[in-house]
Structures
1.
Amino acid sequence: MHNMPADPTLHHAPPQGFIRKYVFSLDHKVIGKQYYGLGLLAVFTGMVLSWIMRIHLGWTNAPVPGVGFFTPVGAPGGVITPELYLQIMTMHATLMVFFVLTVAPFAAYGNFFLPIQVGAEDMPFPHFNMLSFWVTFVAFCVLVSSFFVGDGPTLAGWTAYAPLSAVGSAAGPGQGTGQVLWAAAIGIFCIGQLLGSLNFIPTTLDLRAKGMTFSRMPYTVWAWFITSLMGLTAFAVLMPACVLLILDHVAGTSFFVASNLVINDQLVPHAGGSTLLWQHLFWFFGHPEVYIAIVPGMGIVSHVLSTNLRRPLLSYKVIIGSILTIAFLSYMVYGHHMFVSGMNPASSLAFSFPTLIITIPATIIVLIWLGSIYKSRLRINSASLFALGFISMFISGGISGFFLAQPTIDIMLHATYFVVGHFHLVMAVAAIFGIFAGTYFWYPKMFGRMLDERLGKLHFWLTFVGAYCIFMPFHYLGFAANVRRYQAFVDDYTIHLIPVHRFITVAALVTGAAQFIFFYNIIHSRFWGKPAPDNPWEGTSLEWTIPSPPPFDNFGGKHPIVTHDAYQYGVDAPNGKDYVMQDAPEDIAPRAPAES
Amino acid sequence: MPVDVNEIEKSVSTPRLGGSGHDRPPRMNANDGRLRALQDGSPPPGSTAIWVGIAAITMTFAALTSALVVRQGSGMDWQRLALPNILFLNTLVLLVSSVTLELFRRDFLPATGNGVTSHANGLWLYATLALGLVFVGGQYVAWKQLQGEGVYLASNPSSSFFYLLTAAHALHVLGGLGGLLYIVTKLQRTTLRKSTLDVATKYWHFMDVLWVYLLVLLWAKL
């Protein structure tokens, strides 16, 4: 290892005692694990909620086991009421989008690996970092608390469209306290993520080790850096929007509620507000959020693939440039979520055009992945399988995006299951596959134990096939005009689609059950897994130069000196290896490529 | 060409500017628990973080500005609001506070760690604190004046935005005052770093710029 002795003084002293070590820790690695744990908790909760929804959609009048016990009002005799269905749908989506898709790939992995991969001993502001997690955790608690107060959580959907979200309890169960708690939780969540960006950006810009130039940064570092830039601008807009929504509820203001609105025979005491204002503010955040969820996955997949392909991807610079282009364009396309809001057709066109343009850098990235895999000797393991799965899901979900980007088609499909299929594949499942790829790849480094590869591969195949069984039929349902967000299908044109819903429900239950293989694997391996070597995948980036798990100060009191690119694979190194670590002394640089 | 490792080590141990990717990461604490000069010469991350913070705050107020413009154009209920005159006096107070903080910053000489303690005329810092408090107090007076005229948060969308924007700004100023109090404690322990002071000063000046922008916005749109 090529590095410099470091001054023993650290950002902060090693923690003493359980509380400082594991609860209010300043160590970026512990904070990363805390975020990961929060993500697991949220994904489990969100998954159970999706099961309840799916059972209800398949067998609408059948009692759902256990639900009646928790909410006798929402599910008398266990049969879910329409209101409870919408509440569960809202909480499922909110938990998944904010506390899973944002937390796990960005906050969890980013916290753990960003400082290590750039060669730093910690984030520059450990107290803000700790605060970031705990603020996010408080946001989670506030959100979940809405299950237990008043008439339950909001039913306005994760997009919380006004006026439904702004008029209070007259609009239905959960629209009073539940909606305020939702807005408060999301506002608090935004603060937590802004604190995260406050650390991620200076870490990348200022704390890189000697020799770690921009062009030597791993894909993941770029991905987290770009994501933190997007988060900085997106969450800073959503937060004041949530404040306005809360004020409409508790202070009698009229930001989002129009005049003379009558809901459930009650005249709403607001006047003059703009319902579309919420949509503009929300989607200015909402579309970048899609990329906040997926860009870290792109980084992870590129990182994992390159390691397992044993050669660099076709073009480092083009991938980074494409991700930067996607991030830039993500602010110009948000209006495509509002094609059915009655906007001027010229405005629709203005948003449609960049929406189609943004597919170009996304396609370029996919082509580079596929081109790099072509005729390669890919090492098949759980991480590389999930990386391939990510690409598959991203392509499948992305193709339907071409249709939805065009207003004339979107108007027909917007309120149908076609959109549900699209965004679940391209944003949710793809991002989750990126999270899984990251877990199988980095678990040995994070916990010092190897995961069970056989279980990992079983988990992959069940999840891969299951995800397609769940989400591809959604597209068919959409073409059949099956309206989304409905809790029951009683119209003539939807009744014959119920068998499809039942098939999806069974697939969802089986695929969800398959996740227990994953839960078992990560818990069992934590204690009884094979001890992990420092570099189990023969990787080149800095996280593989240090012990598994890393010591408190990451590099054992030394500062690495980076002399190589992040992906020096497929080379004929003098030590007989086919790779050169980033901190390897220059005199063992590759002599000749092993393959062209 | 192979690189001489000894040369690399020599260059790392030599203090120089240039920053990340070219030097060792800066450490945040003093070796002896007291003042520490940034011997490695890397730019302190705070100098980047302050711009990150300013960008986030700018986005927040940009969102609120766009909300104001959209809301004003969406209904027929928008009423003009006469701004309390004390706002202009408050503006003057805040601008002067920036001057006093800048005087303090320019007067400040950090300790070198060789037995030389930091030096600064703390009077300017305390004056900044006092003026900051006067500003927030003045904003409170403005709110009370409006309430005295029967103009409350929910009276009209224009008053809603007035209270919202001024309160959001005042909260940020209070945050800045918290930062200045932190500077005071650091100054008293002689562990104040120049970079910390620079960050606090940038933030405080930004509060000025933000307030002047808000005042123009409120004057023009309300």
Note: Residues 3-7+27-588 of chain A form a domain with the Cytochrome C Oxidase; Chain A fold (CATH 1.20.210.10).
2.
Amino acid sequence: MSGLTKKFVALAGLSAFVAGNAVAAELTVVSWGGAYTKSQVEAYHKPWMAQTGHTIISEDYGGGIAEIKAQVDSGNVTWDVVDVELSDAIRACDEGLLEEIDHSTLPPAPDGTPAADDFLPGTLHDCAVANIVWSSVYVYDTSKVRNWNVPKTMGDFFDTNAYPGKRGMRKSPKVTMEFALIADGVPVSEVYDVLGTEEGIERAFAKLDTIKDDVIWWEAGAQPPQLLADGEVIFTTAWNGRVFNAVAAEDQSFEMVWDGQIYDLDLWVIPKGSKNVEAALDFVRFSTATEQLANQASWISYGPARASSVPLIGTYHDNSAIKMADHMPTAPGNFANALQNDFEFWADNQDDLNERFNAWLAQ
Amino acid sequence: MNATQPITAADGTPLKKKLAQAMFRSKLRAAGLVAPLLAFVLASFIFPIFALMWQGVHNNTFERLMPNLTEELRVWDGLSEPTEEMYTLLVADLRQNRADKTIGRVASRVNQELAGTRSLFTSTARKAAKLEPPYRDALIKTKKKWGEIKVWQAMKLTNQSLTPGFYATSLDAVYTVDQGFIMKEEKRQIYTKLFIRTLMISGSVMLLCLLLGYPVAYLLATLPLKYSNLLMIMVLLPFWTSLLVRTTAWIAILQSQGVVNDILVWVGIAADDSRFSLIYNMTGTIIAMTHILLPFMILPLYSVMKTIPPSYMRAARSLGATPTRAFIKVYMPQTIPGMGAGGLLVFILAIGYYITPALVGGQDGQLISNMIAYHMQKSLNWSLAAALGGILLGGVLILYWAYDRIIGIDNMKLG
């Protein structure tokens, strides 16, 4: 369904005419669609277009680096800025598919702290600048009356005796295997050490075996809130921003369980050979400034990648009763038992584990 | 009149020659008219297919990007301890790839042979500039893994550009340096199972289409024009609707809180807490695919049935055959070309289906095409995707050949 490309073309404001002699560029910015792209359009695209007089065409995609690779290899690069996951950013950079981004040109924090110190650790890379922290959690629907204790831990997700019914999970070994080990009692700090061994992989699959017959596998980020709203599943894993959007914008009564959450980054990258490198770099600098990152957080509950943005996080854009800071993956109440996705582990083992995961599914 | 005397045209040249000249000119003209299409098909269809098929047996990433090491690896026996010379060349190549930003490509390629080596290459390349001889000790100090023989064996395998490795993987085997082909352990086998499942699902879809489509086509061909036109529109309308719309419509109908289950609960066939699983499994895949492919069966059948004169059946009846016997002995044999064409069409389309299984297939309704798409789009292992596609193409060609031998391709009628 990722082919449903929605194009958002906005005309540059009056400033373009006032600026006069500046040549207006047309920048293609590619992201994940839905509520997430909307938050970027509101917080980054619109103010940047008004300020510079350039135009942004917003496109959606479903992740992965296949399209970037195809464009760079064929020498016909039509994407200028792309929002990617960390493991993909590292891989694409190693394969020479991305422009390098000089961190010293990123805007400092309002108090003068240089960008390199202001960004959270691990969010700046040779070819990529992070904008948000997002998280995989599991979620249930409080509007359905059920005879159960309120689920609190990752173990509850796997407990089919106490919580009978179907569960939604992403059809990918990434995150799924980690969840299984956390539920099996592995402390979050040791998950990747355990998963790096043959016994650990067996252990994760053994845990998944216990719920295999009860799982509905989803692939697109928009599916899990739908599965839950339809009553197809009692629990589903999901990306926290999508769940928040279903609650805040669509009045669903979903509740997230933050225990054992696995957080990851989304980063801006510029495909090598982009025809608008200067404008693209300018856009990346603009959108990762303290103010813009904080603004984005008023549209969706993904945490900003800069320390100086955190105190500026306000309320949901059309409901001042919702304090966004409470809904961030990094909020103190949510962050108690959290694991950061290990991009190096997955860069190494993704192909192999995916093959084993598919073989396990087919059994 | 002498029979051996050739017939001549008005100007005295033999008629045969004259005729050949005229024919040659018209053939040339015909060829000229077809040439653009032929060139288009060659350039946009035949050539890319062969180029992709070639990738299934040929991948020169390693040989191309590691030019110093490649010669040494080729002569290395794959079992003895790697020499200091090999480590030195490796460091030179790593430095070069780091500078060219191509190290990721080498790392990805070796990682396909031995999981867990991607970061070994990329992180070592980052440090390669600072390494001091002797390189063997320096590399092993950086990462223990460089001392392991299996890392070097994986490099030797990837160094071999023309390789049966991808086809071996496609059939759940491993190609090794020292032991040739080894089958993977049972629980890691996936592709052969998926190939068999793809054939089984395609076969079931074809049979279901035939069972459901035959009576409809018969009605279409025999009803008066007024009614058959209406029926034809009902067959064609879904055909004109987007594949995605039809697939998502099936999700709404078949899901456990969907229309079908609601009715079953209301009638009392199913209990509210044990609704049927009709979607996100093989059942859902077969139902949705049958519906989507039905017109491809009905239309060829209809066009064949339309040409069968109703008088044949009447003649059979008047000669004493029962309706069933007349149908089986007289009518059905005449529809075989339509059944063959429809069956082959549905089967071949079903084998390559991937959007529908991806949306409604769940865990046991996935087909081999979903795996091909995964390797094209996500893992970027195009060589493996090409090998899987090559096997699928080979399978279809064998079926086509078998069809030709058993029924005869001349017997096929598409309309």
Note: DSSP finds 19 helices and two strands in chain B.
